[in-house]
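note to self: dont lose this again. the chain is below, predicted strucutre after it. 322 aa total, dont forget to put it in the shared folder this time
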Amino acid sequence: MELIVCTYNNAQILDRALTAISLQKVSPGYYWNVLVVDNNCTDETAAIVEKHIQSQKILGLRRIVEKRQGLTHARICGIKNTTSEWVAFIDDDCLLAENWVENAIKFASSHPSCGAFGGKVVLDWELNPSPILVKYSVIFAASNLGETPKQLTRSNPHIPGAGLVLHRTALEKSGWLDKQFLNDREGKKLSSGGDSEIVLQILNAGYELWFTPDCVLRHFIPAKRISEKYLIDMNYAFGIAAPYIAGLRWNSSYWVWLAISILRILKYLWETVVCAIAAFNNSDKKIETLIKWKWTKGQIDTLLAILMMRGEERVKWLSVFK
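---
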């Protein structure tokens, strides 16, 4: 198994992530190494990685630079510069439990039909979050589906990118390496949804998706992200991605997708209005109204963009449908 750590100007937190990786307890005979994909970092990232290389506590650690900006480009670079049957995307702000790698290898080897899986993601807030942030913790990649392994269904196929483990053959057969609709996190731009796109492409290629409670990591949420404004902005980013994700998830005809998408937008608009009415007497509802509106607006913006597509872009989009 190879761990791919994509990073952009996050050197100090990356240092913590690599330190956690260096503390992994893995039984002899289990092959694993780490590739850091530097996505045009201008901070101390190169020096931090070199420090860990020199420490020799992470065997096989190396760094490569991806000039195309964006998390999706960085992930593709990581896949193309590794060879293992299984690869894992570890965010640069994720701290792995010391048995994460061994448990991931064991789970992968015991589930040959699995194309992708993930584990528990526990949020590690730098500052105490407000109740509204806790309520929407899934936006920050929180994930816990219980204490037993669970196969995911099309109705709930989400696996966070923080700790997403992929079977190389499944990824290749899914077509994701050749065609992507979403480019996650371009520099400071909060674009999102790429994790779901990968997972759904793999599901549509006929592979299983799984959750395992044995792979636990802490997702560090720095103070700069612990705000209602960040939460609202993230909901707009997820709203932008939602129509694309829905097209992959439903695996239906174009016209069915269009009808359901319009109905969903109307539903979210109604929920936004109801929430806005309640906001007159509740300050938390004011924030929630903005969250719902941004989510809805993102979907509207993308739906209009899709309807206006022409040429090769439209052909690419229509290829999603039956």
